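Duplicate of earlier report; Putative HMP/thiamine permease protein YkoC input re-posted below.
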Amino acid sequence: MSVVTDAAAVPVAQVNPVAKLAAAFTIAVGLVLSVDWVSASTALVLEVILLAAMRVPLRSLLNRGAILVFAAALTAVTITLYGEPSGTVHWHFLLITVSDGSITLAVATFLRVLAIALPAVFLFIDTDPTELADGLGQVLRLPARFVLGALAGVRMIGLLGQDWRYLGYARRARGVADHARIRRAAGQAFALLVFAVRRGSMLATAMEARGFGAHPTRTWARPSPFGRREIALIVSGFVIVAVAVTTSVVTGHWNFIGSR
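Output:
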């Protein structure tokens, strides 16, 4: 547990996004291997401790946590009603069968969804897309053309809502937005697509003219440091998975997903 506390010495916003991505991926892969409530609940407790120590804002933790709980609950309800029946059957109607086996599987699924989604969501609070692109290009050595193109595309996504509103205002000013809402929405969506393609083409030409794809002759504007705190966070992800899996195996609840 000392590794977890060492990784949490700084706020989550100051950690390299590549380390956050690696830690979240490690936890997700480890928890996917088994469908049992012991490993998921153990990992969930350790993740909450890690996020609290990394100074994740309490308001964000509660707000986003409530959304994750709701989504996981919907999944659990589906598994309860339509999961594989086993043991005592409590209720049956047409295709719906509620049994001990489906309830146990629903609880395990609920906890596993929370345990996988929690680090994936909260480790990326306040993560700037530019910082993530810097990390992907400098730490993982991904092609600069791909990284910068993806970053430009993400930056352009935020403009789609504004363009949609402006298109609506223009159509209302021309008097073509007062009837046939479905047809108007389809036409407006097509106009938005055309506008986005044109803007993307202009942006690609401008970036090419400025040499954004000329790596390695170009340098990165901002360095992407990767030090002990990032390594500690990744190790913390492995520790969480190791403790969760060991606890599940020792208690006899380990249920490898490939054996089902």
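The CA atoms of residues 137 and 224 lie 9 Å apart.

Merging into the original ticket.
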